[in-house]
TrEMBL record:
Organismal lineage: Bacteria, Bacillati, Actinomycetota, Actinomycetes, Micromonosporales
Record's protein name: Protein PhnA
Source organism per UniProt: Longispora fulva
InterPro entries: YjdM, YjdM_C, YjdM_N
UniProt record similarity statement: Belongs to the YjdM family.
Pfam families: YjdM (PF03831), Zn_Ribbon_YjdM (PF08274)
Record-annotated Protein YjdM N-terminal domain positions: 4-33
Domain Protein YjdM C-terminal: 43-112
Length: 112
């Protein structure tokens, strides 16, 4: 067991493991993205890389989007992001191809 991984938020199992950018619980099969630590107001992606305006990011999990039949699939590249701290829990302004302008949470993207 890796001491640095948090327990499962669903069943509190201590046997979580990493699978790509996600954490997985082998007991209840719950998958989640770890909350990156926020230090000195720096916005970080799902694996802890610092993000900056103009970066390109990749979505790490499928996202449902209101008004879109398909949503955003994992692996979708989003170019030229803009960071906007303080807008709820969504801290990235961007334009997604095929969807349009929207806001994303930094914990569902990984720096490309």
């Amino acid at each position: 067991m890796d001491e640095t991984l948090p327990p499962c938020p669903e069943c509190s199992s201590e046997y979580t493991y990493e699978s790509g950018a996600l954490l997985v619980c082998p007991e209840c099969a719950h998958e989640w993205t770890p909350e990156p630590p926020v230090e000195d107001g720096v916005i970080r992606d799902s694996v802890g890389n610092a993000l900056a305006d103009g970066d390109t990011v990749v979505v790490v999990k499928n996202l449902k989007v209101k008004g879109s039949p398909t949503g955003i699939k994992a692996g979708t590249k989003v170019r030229n992001i803009r960071l906007v701290a303080g807008v709820g829990d969504h801290d990235i302004d961007c334009k997604v191809d095929g969807i349009g302008a929207m806001q994303l949470k930094s914990n569902v993207v990984k720096k490309a």
